Amino acid sequence: MCNPCITLKAFAREFKTHNDRLRMFAAAKTNSKWPYVFGTSPWFPETSSTLAICRTVLAAIQVVHLVWNFSMHFEGGFWFIYLTHLTQTIVTAYSVFACLTAWRALPKLREKGPSKSEETRLPWFVSTSWALFHVAMPAALLVVVLYWTLDNPVWNLKFVPAYMGFYVHGIIFVLLLVDLFLGRNVFYLKHVVFFFAYVLSYLIWSIVHGALDIGKYDGCDAYPDKEDCPIYGVLDWNKPKAAGILSVIIIFFVVPLCQYPLWWCVFKRRLADFVAHHEDESKDESRGTSASAADKDAELDVVA
């Protein structure tokens, strides 16, 4: 299970063409398995509503905190300039769509009879949930990393955040991890383009923000005129060289590093789930020996 060679082989396969994987926006035979992938849990019976209930609770928590944060810090619309707040919005949207998808999957899972084998597209709410998943997870991790290392370093705190500060810069990511390990969602590295586009768009927005002298609602210590204030002091385009270097580091180093741990967690969860469900079958194989972890790993793409 922890063999690094298995992980490396799986990582390499991420960049190959797969005809037996789910497709987000195209038709595929494997897409008919979406109720199993997005609506079941390794921890509960497949036809149980427990996962849907859990995701309903998680969605409710996210919605309540988003409304609470929005009402507390709207600040004449300046709420929308922050990466943290935009990410919280995306996370909340994902949680709502994940909840919807789980409930919509239940009737499909409880249907009797053989599953359809023809090529089909994913329902719109499944594609939306899956796309948001590929942005929400790494974006929440990115917010945690940037906040506790650059904006308010954990080893040299400028101030102790209030509860909402801890929520948007930590707790929200923990809740996403709970969702990740509760379900069977798949995380494909080829969909990194969504997160990359999100981060790149925000960096472009930070440049536009500085060029238009939008500033900050409450001003900042670095500049007497609040219209000169950057969104984040560490990304100050009044100092283009430093801001440019940081942007390059974020795009080419931090963004990939926010993807790999999540992919690894999903891969190991899927591998453990696959091995657990096929343990009995392996014992009955004609060769008389149990299939190796590597053999099971090679079959993972078939299940999802």
Helical fraction equals 55-70%
Could you tell me how far the N terminus lies from the C terminus, measured between alpha carbons in angstroms?
19 Å
**Low-pLDDT runs:** 286-304
- State the major sheet: none
Helix and strand content put the structural class at mainly alpha
Q: Please tell me how large the radius of gyration is.
A: 22 Å
Shape: globular
- Strand fraction equals under 5%
Number of domains: 1
Number of strands: 0
> What order do the helices and strands follow?
HHHHHHHHHH
Mean pLDDT: 88
Helix count, per DSSP? 10
How is this structure best described in words?
Residues 282-304 are annotated as: Disordered. By secondary structure, the chain is mainly alpha-helical. The chain has one domain (4-303). 62% of the residues lie in helices and 0% in strands. It contains ten helices and no strands. The protein starts with a helix and ends with a helix. Residues 286-304 have low confidence and may be disordered.
Topology, element by element:
Elements: H1 4-13, H2 34-39, H3 50-73, H4 83-110, H5 124-151, H6 163-182, H7 192-211, H8 240-283, H9 293-298, H10 300-303
Helix pairs in contact: 3-4, 3-6, 4-5, 4-6, 5-6, 5-7, 5-8, 7-8
Nutshell version of this structure?
Keywords: Membrane, Transmembrane, Transmembrane helix. This protein has 304 residues and is an all-alpha fold.
